[in-house]
């Protein structure tokens, strides 16, 4: 059935097994297979998820003779930082990571006065082929493993705990799956990540599920499957056009699942989870920012448990697509509000550091 079977990544060697790939029960089994007592899995997990360390020297509750074996076997290095750039006084940090096979992915940490959000990638590249998106134009390299995605969050949590981000020591409060890739096309791994993020230590990081947002361009079967997982995360639908004629061009998967089908799945998700759906809409100059389209969108969303995030497009170098004029953006907002639809224009953090997904990777010579 599933969307994850429909959009299959090229077959490649897999990253090394990591404890973040495993449930706590599976970690106990893995530890026992190494000749250690199963309860060592809880100790090892606390070091990774709670103390945010992979240094055997810090694991003094483990037998000295066992530490290196346990860390080497269950905490292999999965991400290597290639480049990190910052803006907003250091409170926005974008990191380019190299995976074990040379693939490049990006994550972004954004610190606000009341929260810290990390935007993570779920695939190396993306197979959705949206023409205004830097990642979409790069194509799909492969799905990421659960642990490779979790590692992006842990790296950010570690930087905050070590006071490496201006504002004093802190904690991650929000995770958004809005980096490189289509999360629901890598369904099994992403669900594993959500569980690792939300389970309390030693199972995971203990972040509230209400602080987790999973985005999708509209893979209807996967949305329906997500609604049955019992995970009260926010669903974000990257709509970008209210009419099928334009959306077929902007979001090619729309040729399979039309606007009405996508929104119907979203409303069912909201009804089952009691969570407000987020509609993501990148405003593109003279393409989808017309007032009549705002009216059409308003009519589709009126009375629903929904919030619209309007995104001023972060143009990629050489692209014909660019952000809407400020006056057109304001008019679009007014038209949506006239239908009683809650709307926010997203903060444009990261524009000066190639903040749009895939821009940093695309600018790297050996990507």
Structure write-up:
Strands 1-2-3-4-7-8-9-10-11-12 form a ten-stranded mixed sheet, with helices on one face. Strands 5-6 form a two-stranded antiparallel sheet. 34% of the residues lie in helices and 18% in strands. It starts with a helix and ends in a 5-residue tail after the last helix. Helix 8 links the parallel strand 8 (212-216) and strand 9 (234-238). With 367 residues, it is α/β, with parallel strands linked by helices. The radius of gyration is 21 Å and the shape is elongated. The protein has helices spanning 3-6, 24-33, 40-49, 64-74, 134-138, 146-161, 187-198, 220-226, 244-250, 259-273, 291-301, 326-338, 359-362; strands at residues 80-87, 92-98, 104-111, 116-119, 123-125, 140-143, 174-177, 212-216, 234-238, 277-283, 306-312, 343-345. It is built from 13 helices and twelve strands. It has one domain (3-7, 78-362): TIM Barrel, CATH 3.20.20.70. Residues 112-352 form the Radical SAM core domain. Pfam families: Radical_SAM (PF04055), RlmN_N (PF21016). Its cofactor is [4Fe-4S] cluster. S-adenosyl-L-methionine binds at residues 181-182, 215, 238-240, 314.
């Amino acid at each position: 059935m599933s969307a994850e079977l429909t959009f299959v990544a090229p077959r490649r060697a897999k990253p090394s097994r990591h404890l973040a790939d495993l449930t706590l029960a599976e970690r106990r089994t893995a530890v026992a297979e190494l000749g250690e007592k199963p309860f060592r899995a809880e100790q090892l997990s606390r070091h990774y998820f709670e103390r945010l360390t992979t240094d055997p020297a810090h694991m003094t509750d483990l037998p000295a003779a066992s530490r290196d074996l346990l860390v080497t076997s269950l905490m292999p290095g999965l991400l290597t930082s290639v480049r990190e750039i910052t803006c907003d006084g250091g409170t926005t940090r974008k990191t380019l990571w190299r995976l074990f096979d040379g693939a490049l992915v990006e994550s972004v940490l954004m610190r606000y006065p009341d929260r810290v959000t990390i935007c993570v990638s779920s695939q190396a590249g993306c197979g959705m082929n949206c023409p205004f998106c830097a990642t979409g134009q790069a194509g799909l390299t492969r799905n990421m493993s659960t642990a490779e995605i979790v590692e992006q969050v842990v790296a950010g949590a570690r930087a905050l705990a070590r006071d490496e981000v201006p504002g004093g020591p802190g904690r991650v409060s929000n995770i958004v799956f809005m980096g490189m890739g289509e999360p629901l096309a890598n369904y099994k791994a992403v669900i594993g990540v959500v569980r690792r993020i939300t389970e309390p230590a030693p199972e995971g990081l203990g972040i509230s599920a209400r602080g987790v947002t999973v985005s999708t361009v509209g893979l209807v079967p996967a949305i329906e499957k997500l609604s049955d997982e019992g995970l009260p995360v926010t669903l974000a639908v990257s709509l970008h056009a209210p009419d099928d004629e334009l959306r077929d061009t902007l979001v090619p998967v729309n040729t399979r699942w039309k606007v009405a089908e996508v929104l119907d799945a979203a409303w069912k998700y909201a009804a089952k989870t009691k969570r407000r759906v987020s509609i993501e809409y990148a405003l593109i100059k003279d393409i989808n920012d017309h007032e009549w389209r705002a009216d059409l969108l308003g009519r589709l969303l009126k009375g629903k448990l929904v919030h619209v995030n309007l995104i001023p497009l972060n143009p990629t170098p050489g692209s014909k697509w660019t952000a809407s004029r400020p006056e057109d953006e304001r008019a679009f907002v007014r038209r949506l509000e006239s239908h009683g639809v809650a709307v926010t224009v997203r903060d444009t953090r990261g524009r000066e550091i190639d903040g749009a997904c895939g821009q940093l990777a695309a600018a790297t010579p050996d990507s």
